Amino acid sequence: MIRRIGRREFDFSRQVAVMAVVNRTPDSFFDQGATFALDRAVEAAVRAAELGADWIDIGGVPFGRGPDVSVEEEIARVTPVIERVAATSDVVISVDTNRADVARAAIAAGAAVVNDTSGLGDPDMASAIASSDAHIVITHSVGPPRVEKPAARFGDVVGEVREFLVERTERAIAAGVPRDRIIIDPGHDLDKNTLHSLELTRRLGEIADIGLPLLVAVSNKDFVGEAIDREKEQRLAGSLAAMTSCLERGARIVRMHDVEASVDAARMFEATMGWREPARLEHNTHPTRNV
Q1: N or C: which end of the chain has fewer CB within 10 A?
Q2: Which residue range(s) make up the domain with 68?
Q3: How large is the average pLDDT for residues 20-49?
C-alpha cells in the first residue's frame, strides 16, 4: 500500500491523505463560486497546503446538473491553477474531470491524478491515463454528470457499487493502466440517496476489500445533512464523523472542504491507531515534587 503519487509518498497501511477541494466554478456545490477567480483559486490551494493538506483536488465543472461547459472552457479553468500550484508546492494535485481531453491537458500542466467521477465514462479516459504517469480515481456513479437523473434505486447498493468498481478497474488495467496507479471511490451521494450513502458507509469494508487505495468524498454532502437535519453550512461535525467512520472501515484518502479541522481529525485517528507519534508528550510525564 505504499504509493508514490506526484512528488509525495504515502503508506496507506498507516497513513491518511487529506484532499482539499478547490473548485474554479461559478456554481460549485459548497462554496458557490468563492474560488472561481484564478487568484482566489490559487490562494485557496496554497493555503490548504499550508494548513496541512496532502492533496489538492481542482475542478472546473461540478458533478451536479447545470449548464454545459465546453472542453476548452474546462481546460482554461483548471490548467492555470494546476500550473501555479505545482510551481509553488510539492502537494499532490488532482484534476476533477470526466473528460479525457481535459485530463491530458491537466496532466501536462502538472496534475498527478485524474479524479474521474464518471468512472471511465469517457471511453478514451483509460488510454489517456495509460499513456501518462498519472494515477486515476475511479468513482462509482450512474450515467453522465450534469444531467437530471431518475430517483436512485439499487437492489444491493454496496454489491452493485463493488461490482462496478471491480469491472472498471479491470477495464483500466486492460487499457494499460498499472493496478498500482488506480484508486477507487464508492461515490457517496453520486446518484444515490441518503439511505444508500449511509449503507455504503456502514459496509465500506466490502469496498476496501477490493485491495486498492480507497478515497471517500463525504464532506458537507446531503446524506450528512439529511441524517442529522443540518443545512450545508452546519455540517462540519457530521462530515468529520462520517469521515472517521470511513477511515475505521478502510478509507485512506478523504476529500474534505474544511482543511484544518479535517487534518486534525485525520492525524488524531492516526495517533489513536498507533500509526503516528504524539506531536508532544508532556501530560503526567514529570515526577511529582515533594513540597
Answers
A1: C
A2: 2-272
A3: 84
Location of C-alpha cell 469494508: 205
Is residue 40 flagged as an active site residue? no
Q: What is the CATH number of the domain that holds 133?
A: 3.20.20.20
Measured CA to CA, the distance from residue 72 to residue 80 in angstroms comes to 13
Is pLDDT at 152 greater than 80 in this prediction?
A: yes
Assess if residue 39 is contained within a domain: yes
**How far is residue 235's CA from residue 224's CA, in Å, rounded to a whole number?**
7
15 is a domain residue:
yes
Report residue 190 CA to chain centroid gap: 13
Rounded-to-integer distance, Cα 243 and Cα 203, Å: 14
- Whether 144 is in a domain gets the answer yes
Is 255 among the residues known to form the active site? yes
pLDDT tens, position by position, 187-213: 999 999 999 999 999 999 999 999 999
* 137 in Cβ contact with 113 (< 8 Å): yes
Where do the DSSP E strands lie in the chain? Answer: 2-5, 8-11, 17-23, 55-59, 92-96, 113-116, 135-139, 182-185, 215-216, 253-256
Q: Can you read off the three cell numbers belonging to residue 285? A: 510525564
- Cα within 13 Å of Cα(207), Cβ side: 35
Share of the chain above pLDDT 70, in %: 96
pLDDT band for position 60 (50/70/90)? very high
Tally of structural domains, the chain: 1
157 pLDDT band, cuts 50/70/90, is very high
Active-site choice (24, 181, 221, 252): 221
C-alpha cell at 62: 461540478
- The percent helix, strand, coil of the chain (3-state, each to 5) is 40, 15, 45
User: What phi, psi does 273 have (nearest 5°)?
Assistant: -80, -5
